Amino acid sequence: MPADTIAADDLPAIRVDAVGKVFRTWASPAQRLIVPALHRSGSLLAAALPRVAARLHASAHRRIHVHQALHDISFDLRRGEALGIIGLNGSGKSTLLQIIAGVLPPTCGRVHTHGRIAALLELGSGFNPELTGRENIHINGAILGLTRARIDAVIDDIIDFADIGDYIEQPVKTYSSGMALRLAFSVQVHVEPDILIVDEALAVGDAAFQAKAMTRIQQILARGTTLLFVGHDLNALRAFCQRAILLEDGRMAMLGAPEEVIEEYLFRVHAKAARDGQAKPIRIAEGFRSEDGGVLGLSLQGGARHLALNCGDPLEVDIDLEVQAALADAACIIDILDERGVPLSGRRIRLPESADGPQRLRLRVAFRAELARGIYRVRARLVQAPDRHQHHRRVLCRYESDLSFEVIDNSIERFSGLFPLPAEVVVQRLGTDDHRA
Q: Lower CB count within 10 Å: N or C terminus of the chain?
């Protein structure tokens, strides 16, 4: 292989180097004219009347509101890697993605990208409402760097994936917002990008289209496409990403494994809620807990930290916890997670209330490990949910244990997927006359 090819392959797909972004806003449209005039006047008078010039410059600065959206962000994203970015609203996630995608220029620092980029940011924002869907496909494809021949080769696949019927020949201004989003998503995922940037774009359309969109993303990643993902769907981050970044107030607070970053993010979410009147979370080695209660420990049967089981073998998990007497509507949740930390199933146990002071409880959850071959982890959470719809659920404790169990035999003859489907199966032999095409 030539040396220059090897060097190109070694380059990161995305390199973000000390990027910062400052937005300047004015109190009124008139200030946009007044501020430059004050600056220009101050510069002209700087030599003859320095004091007057200084006052003019100070007056100009007072009329500008400066918002530092990003501070010194640096990271590399390797080819074929998936990186997730999470953070509270206003932390700078979308601004960072727009800078990487080339939509916004950075105030300082540089971004280097290598390869074709498809950015799922504000889907449909580049469509011309007066043109048809088909015409907009050609325009967007050309903007993304596709030749006319390449667009013609994939346009039928784009239209079929969007599934908007005869509206493809109608002006986009007649589309519903969902139809425009579906068409925009379909265009972006069919350009075979080297880098895919996704900003909260996996929840487009109805449930059926969302499932199709997730499958398409997985197919793109399987080809070795680099993914940069921003979203509040923590399970999608666990499923897709090898690394994650936590942004807070425009600063990179943490870079690491997805589960570690998610745990820190959730702690900060609950710490922010505490400032709004809730009990302050307390860090523990396994995650965090509240002054109102927490998990003390988890154990498997016989005190083991790891067990090897056959599919269907019995398994017991003991959960020790404590809750304050004043705590009402509390429940403990036991979660079964896969190797990447994605919740597969679990059980919610409502806790008894006590009027006699703090209480310590031991819960024993017994079940059969009817799961596909693989390694599974056990997690416990303590929540307070005053209503059955969970609108005001409060997480008191999140306990990431080191307990795990492994199902070692292959259950492919019994069920497909991760766990069996409870079903009654009837097999009937059909005669020739009973066959239906």
A: C
If you compute the radius of gyration of the chain from its CA atoms, what whole number of angstroms results? 28
| pLDDT given for residue 202 in this prediction | 59
Q: What is the CATH number of the domain that holds 354?
A: 2.70.50.60
- pTM for this entry: 0.73
> In Å, what is the CA distance from 359 to each residue of 324, 325, 329, 362?
7, 7, 14, 10
CATH of the domain at 188: 3.40.50.300
Question: Which of 25-34, 177-186, 208-217, 403-412 is the least confident region?
Answer: 25-34
Is 354 in the same domain as 241?
no
Asked if 79 and 175 sit in the same domain, the reply is: yes
Give the three-class secondary structure for 148: helix
For residue 4, pLDDT beyond 50: no
Is the same domain home to 58 and 203? no
CA–CA–CA angle 95, 227, 269 (5° rounding)? 55
Give the pLDDT of residue 354.
73
Q: What is the DSSP letter of 25?
A: E
Residue tagged 């056959």 (tokens): 310
pLDDT (0 to 100) of residue 2: 45
Helix (H, G, I), strand (E, B) or coil at 110: strand
Phi and psi torsions of 185, nearest 5°: -60, -45
Domain limits for position 227: 73-258
Residue 411 has pLDDT above 50, yes or no: yes
Looking at the fold, whether 78 and 59 belong to one and the same domain comes out as no
d(CA 93, CA 73): 11
